[in-house]
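In this notebook, the sequence line spells out the residues, with the fold written below as integer tokens. This is how one looks.
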Amino acid sequence: MKQLEHLGIAVADLAEAERIFTDLLGVPPYKREEVKDEGVMTSFFQAGESKVELLESITPNGPISRHIEKRGPGLHHVAFLVDDLEAEIARLEGEGYRVISGPKAGADAKRIAFLHPSDTAKVLVELCSEA
């Protein structure tokens, strides 16, 4: 089973982005979490059955910092929840998709992997499963 798990949004100022999304969604974030391996501080909002993940770089050379430098703040990735991360990776690799990162531990008690955006209509796709 696959379902939209969350949208990841790269932000330059996490506190300001949290204020904006609190206004937009009418609820505060339910958690903040640092992911040291990725060099980010995350903030999660529940939006119906899916989530919004705000990502602020905590390192000058991290992936979010580089993303903002190249593309500016905004949509970073689309994440889909899968039942079995390793089986889904194997299936997609068999179809010719390339994994650029993972599987590894991610935020919000998930195991994650990212697919190469050149293979996915120029959208960075994250696959995630419950840890």
Notes: The helical segments are 14-25, 63-71, 85-94. The first strand starts at residue 2 and ends at 11. Residues 24 and 72 are 21 Å apart (CA to CA).
